[in-house]
Every structure is written in structure tokens, then in C-alpha cells.
Queue: 2 jobs
Job 1
Amino acid sequence: MPAVSADDLLTFAKIEVPTSASSRPVLSVSTAPAGVEGEGFPVRRAFAGVPSSQLDPFVHMDQMGEVEYAPGEPRGTPWHPHRGFETVTYMIAGTFQHQDSIGGGGLITGGDTQWMTAGGGILHIERPPDDLVASGGLFHGIQLWVNLPARDKLIAPRYQDIGRRQIVRLASADGGALVRVIAGQVAGHNGPGVTHTPIALVHVTMAAGARLELPWPPDFNGLVYVLGGQGSVGSDAAPVRTGQLAVLGRGDTILVAADQHQEVRTSSLDVLVLGGQPIGEPVVAYGPFVMNTKAEIAQAFEDYQQGRFGSVPAGSLT
Ligand code: MN
């Protein structure tokens, strides 16, 4: 996890919370099962077992790693299609190389985000660069799927590269938590990511014993996922630890507190706080496609097989 010094935190705007704010309660805490993605990299399926109505407008989230690869071990995905949603890849440690069929792509590394709107159809590949495959090393990130409403499912694909320096950094009122706003508006500060469906995505690193009260739009759902460490969430201080997701109920703020005792290796609590305006439409997610009906999924497979998702550019990564 990225280290945060007290000196750093002093330079960031502090998050103010109105005294009348009501803190959201925790509705459930679930534990992400381990899985394997692409050509064999380890993930935690953050949203497994949670009703899609509570995740809306999100569909799926993987925590990639955290893993320390031996030389030759790093893995990625082969070329594959998507339709009907947006993928957000946020790298915390290590590097991923990306290319897509509309000419988007680049390297993303510690703190960078890549935002891909699949819309009507795109092909892409994500893999560690050759030098990282050779060397091995630490690899940690997330990939989040943000749904598109029916009216936007077939829009033109788009690619956004969000460098780590564009991320808006804030501090908790107690100065013990670093709050990185990747997308959306938090406490009056706008993050760089632009989505069709309004969302907020925040990465928080908290010193042992720190407490954060985060203003959260009342019309957004609220989720807290623990990347590493242990603490408590919500007005009822539900305990959470690495790989657990808390679903919050209604209210104005999201409360997160880091335990005094943390895992020895990191010494901090690292969480993602995310939410958005629910789309409120039927969700049929199958493989790489997220549509409203089964017929639209069948159409997506047919269009992909007929080559209507474009083609892999000449000279691309393999
Ligand atoms: Mn993909």
C-alpha cells in the first residue's frame, strides 16, 4: 500500500461534515471469494453474493492481487470483447498495459486509472508489460464494472486515461486518513473520472486509529470494500477486514474507522468507498456483456462472432 506521511496530509483540504448529518447504517457485510481471471491472475470477487439491486449502478468488481509474483509469473487477459457498460481499472501497485480496438491504450501503474466505455462494442487486452513478466514483483489493483442505462448501452466506445496526478487528494478531519477522489464529487471536490451514470469512487488509506466521516450523496448507494487491514464501518461500527464488502443503507455520510491494531505488513486500513445513482433497470450480465434482456445478450454474441465489434489493430499486443 502507498505510504502516507503526516506531512503529506497537512497539505490537503480537510473534509468538513455538517453537524446535522446522519451516518449510514450497515445493511450487510460479505466476504469476497477468491477466483482466477484472464490467463491466471488471482482476484477476489468483491460483489459475490450481493443482490444486484444493492450494487446498482455497479455490476462487478475484482480486487486483482495483492500478489507478489515470482519472475515469469505475471499474467493478463487475451483479447476479448465487452458491450453495455464501462470498465474502470485502478492500479495500486505494479503495471498493466492496455490496448483496444478503437486505438486507446497505454501503461497504467501505481495510482493510475484507465476508464473504458465499452458502449456498443469494443475489443481489448490487458497484460503486464514484458519487463514486469520477466522480473515479477508486486501487483495490486481493482477492476470495476459500471453499468450503462438502456439508452446508452450501444453508444460509441470511449477511452480515458487518468494519471495519478489528476486524482484529487483530501484529508479526514482528524488528519489520519488520505482520501483520493478518483471519480465523482465528494465533499464539494470533483475527481477526474467521467461516467455516463453518476458515481463516486474514492480510495482511502487510514492510519491505525484514524476515523473518517465522508459526506455521501443521499441518492447514491453506498459500498465500502476493504483492500487491506481492519476496522469498522457505518453508524453501528460493523467490523470489517481485508476482502470484505459492507453495503450501507440510507443517510448523509459514510463512517469508516481504522482499528488500533492492523496487519503487521501494512499498518494501515485501505478501503474503497463507492456508490452511484441506481439505474433501476433489469440487468442481464453474461460473460463480457451487460445488457437488459437475454435477447440482447444473444445479439451481442452474434455481433461479436460476425466481427461487428471491430478488429484487433495490426501490430498489437498478443
Ligand atoms: Mn476486459
Job 2
Amino acid sequence: MIRDFADLDLDPVLLQSLEEMGFSKPTQIQASAIPVALDGNDVLASAPTGTGKTAAFALPAIQYLLDFPRKKPGPARILILTPTRELAMQVTEQVKSLAKYTRLQIFSITGGVQYQEHADLLAATQDIVVATPGRLMEYIESETFDCRAIEWLILDEADRMLDMGFGPVVERLSAECRWRKQSLLFSATLEGHGVENFSARLLKDPQIVQSDPSRRERKKITQWYYRADDLPHKVELLKHILAEQSQKAIVFIKTRERLAELRGMLEKASIECAWLQGEMPQDRRNNAITRFRDGSVNVLLATDVAARGIDIPDISHVINYDLPRSADVFVHRIGRTARAGKKGTAISLVEAHDQPMMDRICRYQKEEIKERFVDGLRPQHKKPVFKKKKKTKASPAKKTGKKSTKRKK
Ligand code: ADP
Ligand code: MG
């Protein structure tokens, strides 16, 4: 049973940087993936967003380089691929922090950077390179990047890479790195997206490491909901939450149209926000994420599709302006707050017709979500009553109690 980073056979220089970063205990995926990777296995790992996958692959990779130091200067030994430039930046930063007390050279290669900057950097000795697939492939084709020395290939957010159509280029990169010793594939999910097929082509006899929507990590999310009578009431509640309760909030909305509508209303109320929606040009997307991340704005409006894969630390509140279509999407959404080791709050706005979904969500996550009220914004309608604490399917309370004697099972 692994409880501490010290149980993981990591170098003291890593333990020191972990301590400085405030990582006191490994997350579940870290505790399971790190030993398996250090034993020399290929790894197929999945864990929900925000559960510390970066360190789960970065720590064994760094440890490997410390265990087998290079004898002479040369090209990169570890290649980490991420689907987007913004993720590459984040991963690079985290790897650099973890490797703070080593002499390892860490670089990133992504689009949007002047060629000359990369050219200089590619001449240098590198240990770890974090790259987006498209740009890296260009460098390989122009022979400015040499991947013959790659010993580990790590794919981060494989599900998202496939969604974004990077499958073929990643497979070509994998072929370029054919002399590697080990491959690690990390993903938020293994279902759908073709991740299993993809991993079968990239990994050799992988050890599969999965971490459930970890209870320990999920527990730190405080949840409640407010009932809303109608749209205007809902908007008032949201404004109240944004003004009085939250520091940094992501607000989930069902559709693009509703997002645009809400945006207008918040603007009128002088609440500044950034937003993400599907089919948004990459630069505007990045711009929105950057503004939210660096705190220029403290509210991010997003649809589920648009919010996929983004990783922003320190989200204090997840607000479900609309409930999602399914309970697992709900769990995914709220997982964006309370990042490993921190606390977070998830607030849902529930209209009468949402009540059955709310019940389903509670059953799914095996946790009751309590109702709260805002003075002056109490709902006018009575809470639709559904049978509590019974396994029977929710059915509206009978006022007359005469006709419907049959209950659905
Ligand atoms: P994922 O890739 O699974 O979405 P990240 O690797 O981005 O998650 O980590 C999410 C957040 O949790 C980051 O802010 C990271 O610094 C923090 N974190 C990771 N591991 C730990 C840990 N063991 N203890 C505390 N915080 C951690
Ligand atoms: Mg990640």
C-alpha cells in the first residue's frame, strides 16, 4: 500500500520539489502508475481530469533519467506529446518544477513559436521535450528534430488527441521513435474515442492502470443547489453566486445559443466573463483560457464540448447553470474544481423539470446534494416531491391519491 511519495522509490531531489510544490501525498493514479512505469512497463492509464496525471508520468520519467544518466550531450530522451499548445505549456511548467533540483534540460516545441527560437533550442542538449504532434512532425520532416534517442514516449490526453484528429500523426511519430524502450499513454477515459485500438498499436503489453473518480479526491467538493422558478430567477441566482460566493468560477451551459444569451445578460450586469464554445478559432479559445487562468476575468462560461480537456488550476466554483444530459457528465464537470488536494464548490441551479435529473445525479455519485436558499431569491414554486429513500423510480407526489395506484418499478 503506497501512502507517501517516500514509498515510491523516488530520488530525494524529487521529494524535495514535491514538498515545495505542496504535493504531500500521491493521488491514486500517481500511486498506481509510478511503480508500474518505474518497473519498465508500458502503461495505459486513465483517471479523471484533475487527479494528477501529469506528475504520474513526469515523476517516473525524471526518475528514469536520474537512474540512467546520459554519458554525453545529445538529443531528447523523453518525448511527451500533448494535444494543444496550452497543455504543452502547462506540462512543461510542471515538469520543470518537479525537476527543479536536477540538471535536466526541458523544452517545449509547439505551434505559434517563431522558427528561429526553436532552431536555437534544437541545437541544445535536451532531456525532456514536450510537444504538440503537428509542429513536432514538421521538425522531424525537415530533420531539425532527432528522435532516434527517444527512450520514452508519453502521450497525454490521448482521448483528446484522437478527438482532434491527431491519431495518424501520432502513429507516425511513434514509428519515428521506434527505438524507444517504453511508452505511456494517459487519458481521461478509455471508453469511446478509439483509445483502446490506438493504444494497442502504440503500446507493448501495457499494464492497465485505472483510477475511479477517486472518492478521496472527490470528497473535497462541497455541493449544493438552488431551485429556480424560471430563467430570470436563475440568472439572478447566478449573479448572486458570482458576486457573493465565488472567486474563480466555470459556468456550464447547455447550448451555444443559451451561452450567448447569458453572456449578454451578464454583460449588462457588468459581470465580466470569458467564454468557450464549440467551433471557436484556436487563438480566441486560447485567449479566453489565458484571461481566465491569469485572473483577468474570474468567470468562464462554457459548453461541455468546448470545455473538454482544458485544465485550469484553482477553479473555486463549478456552476451548473444548466444540468447536463447525464450524471457522468456532471461528475466530469465538477471534477474541474477541487483539484488534487484542494477544496472546491459545485453549485447547481435546478428548475422544476430538472429535479428528476438531480435525483439521478445523487444516486450516481452516491451522495446527497442539499438545497440552499438565498434570501430574497427564494423560489416561489413548491419543490416537486419525489419519493425519497426508496428505490422506486421518482414519481410525482399524489395529491388525490386515488387513481394512480400502480407504481413504476
Ligand atoms: P490531470 O492531468 O489528471 O487533469 P494535473 O496533472 O493537471 O491533472 O493535476 C491537477 C492539479 O493537481 C495540478 O494543479 C497539480 O499541481 C495538482 N496536483 C497533482 N498531484 C498532486 C498531489 N499529489 N498533491 C497535490 N496536488 C497535486
Ligand atoms: Mg492532464
